[in-house]
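note to self: the first set is below, dont mix up w the second
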Amino acid sequence: MKKVLVTGGAGFVGSHLCDRLIKDGHEVICLDNLFTGSRDNIAHLSANPNFTFIERDVQLPFYAKVDWIFNLACPASPPHYQHEPVETVRTNVLGMFNMLELAKAVGARILQASTSEVYGDPLVHPQTEAYWGNVDPISRRACYDEGKRCAETLCFDYHREYGVDIRVIRIFNTYGPRMAKNDGRVVSNFILQALRGEPVTIYGDGSHTRSFQYVDDLIEGMIKMMEQDGFTGPLNIGNPGEFTLNELAKIVIEMTGSASQVTHLPEVDHDPKKRQADIALAREKLGWEPKIPLREGLAKTIEYFRTVI
């Protein structure tokens, strides 16, 4: 059994990670300031003796004797991180610094949940870990993109200078139950609009592409990465299946049985035109690849949103 700290553990992905760690027999400390996380996501764990929730901001130093640290603390959807861009940078950079200092102090292994957004609006397709990215450092998205890039820099500098045992993964678009209704991500937007019979809104002509992975596949990849000895990453964790937004909208409308129509709105500045995970390295190093196809994952996600609205 490991003693594990999960920052951002009351969020969408973090709560699923806490579930898996508890199921695997570990002791979990969940740290979250509830900016985008929710107590509802972890309420079912509150009575478990191996689970502890602490409401605290990762920007503040924190100490606990732990074996593993999963650093997920950061708003991950554009409406949230663009609403408070300075806080987003502080969370990415100061939060990473504090967690690396903790890992150094107690000899813990630490996994940073980075993002495919470090690739920006990519000029290479699909995106491999060797690609350095195409990011505008002064755009409205830069607080997230550059914040995550700086966090990766800190990880590798702490690894080289202090020998901290790091793991860095780059997460591609992930969906599933417990996504926030107001997070502005395309899957939750489309599902909620379709269930309500509202127009399904696409920014641009709908030709932009994304790779969509179900949350359970991501959690499996995170666990495998943390258990892997001698490999720091960075490592793409995503589903290489590539879909246009037009295709996704059509599938969601069909699966919800909705009468919604698609409406196109002006394109959003700096919205990446292409996104597809190259997971050759994950297959080689971890023997990992996603198992859950889009329609199967969407069915579970649609059922969840039916219950919350």
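second set (the one i keep forgetting abt)
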Amino acid sequence: MSAALARRVATAIALFTTITALEAQVVDHTDFDRTLKAHVRNGLVDYDAFKTDPAFAGYLRLLATTNVAALPRNEQLALWINAYNAYTIQLINVKGERESIRNINKSLGFLRLKGPWSDAFAVVGGKTYSLDDIEHRIIRPTFREPRIHFALVCAAIGCPPLRSEAYTGARLEAQLNDQTVMFLTKTPAKNRVDVASRTVYRSQVFNFSDYMKDFGGSEAAVGKFIARYYPAGPEKTLLERGDFRVVETEYDWRLNSVTNARLVPRVQ
């Protein structure tokens, strides 16, 4: 083999190896995407359909065997968001709950049970996690991305609505941005700005646990964060100025199921 041919062969092998490595760093979320498109409508979930769909079971098996550490950042975050949402659906079905996620492992008198979010059952990359582990010990400290609070869906009507598509590394930025705009500006029963009374009506999502620090740690910082997703106008100006009072809207913990469609406030 001539030196020139040997170089061409070596170059081809290196290119193939690079392409193969890049392909290996992308997770195929097709099964979850297909089930979300089939069984989620306007954020409401057909839990019974997920329970019997083999594609959903296949996706959980994929999560259980994926080496997350080998993935690029956006692929990792997309996977963890999908894992949280998929295992929340699985938890509702495994427990047979059809009223509220808060009924799962509920405290009984003086006996404090785990609750739904601290029950370790979600298998990702060969390790078992609780939903709290995924959110508070992996996603929040690792990625420091406040928009995840509008992408992680806790199976309640008061949550941001579940998307009818899986998150992917390639589209993550656009998906998170769209989810944030939708929740902050297009769900007036949960979030809205009343300029006349200088009042920001705001979902309790911002105040759960220590979530506020993810948005800057103060009411003024939260206002500036929300303002980013408003077009130029009096609402944006009020939010940026910080001269407003906050009223928390009611958080509806009823299950975000298709059977509860009539309970969901209309989007105006």
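remember for set 2: Residues 12-23 have pLDDT under 50 and may be disordered.
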